[in-house]
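WARN no homologs supplied; continuing
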Amino acid sequence: MFGIKSKQLDTSKYNNKAAFLFLLPWIIGVLLFTIWPMIQSLWLSFTDYSIYGSAKFIGLDNYKEMFFDDRMFKNSLIITLKYVIMFVPVKMVAALFVAILLNKKIRGMAIYRTIYYIPSIIGAGIAMAVTWKIVLSRDGFVNDILSIFGIGPFDFLTSPKMALGTLAIMGAWQFGSAMVVFLSALKQVPNELYEAGDIDGAGKIRKFFKITLPMISSNILFNLIMGIINAFQVFTQVSVITNGGPADSTYVYMLHLYRTAFESHRMGYSSALAWILTLIIFAFTVIIFWSSKKWVYYEN
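OK structure emitted
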């Protein structure tokens, strides 16, 4: 108008700079406290290093010792795999079951959801581990309750046959995060599918396996991977409650790594242990993602 051309201000470059400035603290934190320590750890895995001297390059000797000479490496890995096999299914089933119960339109449901999520807020710290140790001891609260029905007492934490399973169930008690993921997924399942199932005469069980599970399969995949990662890194409750006992029945991988690093002061060897654990978790993740093509349903 009037021969004057309006100039549209290009704000994209300013927005990019602003976004980068906001991300800069996070980027610096990741580089300094994640990437750089990982690089150092990888280098130390090829060295003979303790906190009292300088690192001496020894090539693959740490890995050779790990696979051929370290009996506790193999035992701790087997015990950790057993823990994963027990912990992940229990946590997944518990989280999904409670999510289904909480996916109802009844008064006060928000309160129930909060109550079930509280254990995840508390965390798996030392205080909770000590509490569980007291509750599950031979003269603890659980055995007192069972004695009313003439059952027990059981050596939940001092029996080699029961200790690892007890720790797995104890860890699965904190299923709040997985429950929230499942609850969100259940709310996204279209009601039209259930109505179609009713028209076809499908019962609740058939609708659960034919409609609910396929529609939330991507969330099952997410919780499965996160559960496996967390299970492989179990440490606090094992260290506080059983300390690897009885008879090394709960001597998990992270406990072996910790003792190697901070009791034997073999930082190079413990770094090698850490990288092997990283590769194991990565391998499990790749296998699960590969298999997900056959059982995970994506709408697009």
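The mean pLDDT is 89.
OK
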